[in-house]
Amino acid sequence: MNNNPFDLAIDLNYLVYFMVNYVLKKTAHCIQKARNEVDELSHKLDEDPDELDISDIIDVKDNVHNLSNIVEDQYIALQSIPKLRWADGVIRIDDEIGRTIKNYSFILDLTSRLEENIKGVQSHYQLLLQERSNKKLNTLTIIQAIFVPLTLLTGIYGMNFVNMPELNMVNGYYIFLISITVIAIFELLVFWKRGWFD
Fold first, then answer.
1. pLDDT tens across 14-42, in order?
2. How many CB atoms are closer than 10 A to CB 140?
3. Where, by residue number, does the polypeptide cross the bilayer (predicted)?
4. Disulfide: which of 51, 94, 183, 190 matches 13 by Cβ 3.0-4.6 Å?
């Protein structure tokens, strides 16, 4: 005669159900935390990208990737629970536990979306960095385009040839300075009208 007041099958089903729900709640909490981090990075990127560093994005990306791996491992482990057999060869699993385990695929979808979101944030950040680099190169190109003709003129007059009629002019030095200033201003105006400073 069995003096045990508890039914072993019911107690084990309850224990499995409790463990599965505990894992789901903890995982959902971790996903919510990771989602908040991704949303915060996205907000910073939109509002003040100068405050953001690539290491911040990489840290969150690594966290999301690790979380995704953990969720996948949990999903695989939880899928094996309905296949467990008791010593008598009978599968005893509560329908509620089975439905809960099947619904775990929703959490897999959440982690996949999180990974896509953080990849989007990283791509957006890289585009901003590329845009900044392009603006710097644009500025350097403008400066070079302005000063190359002036450097050529200065180089020609710096050769000190014996027969340079401009050297004998009374105001030749001032005329030269005014000429290169006019050239520089003209080039600046041309670049400005073509939208190179935008």
1. 777 788 888 888 998 999 999 999 999 99
2. 10
3. 6-24, 137-159, 171-192
4. 94
